[in-house]
Amino acid sequence: MKKNDPDTPMIEADRLSKFYGIFAACREVSFTVRKGELVAFLGPNGAGKSTTMKLLTGYLSPSEGTARIAGHDMMIDRLAGSQRLGYLPENGPLYPDMTPHSLLEFFAEARGMARDRKNDRIEAVVDLCALGSVLHKPISKLSKGYRQRVGMAQALLHEPDVLILDEPTAGLDPNQIRDLRETMRRLGEQKTILLSTHILQEVEAMASRVIVINEGRLVYDGPVAELHRGGRGLEAAFQELTAQAAVV
Question: Is 89 a member of any domain?
Answer without folding.
Answer: no
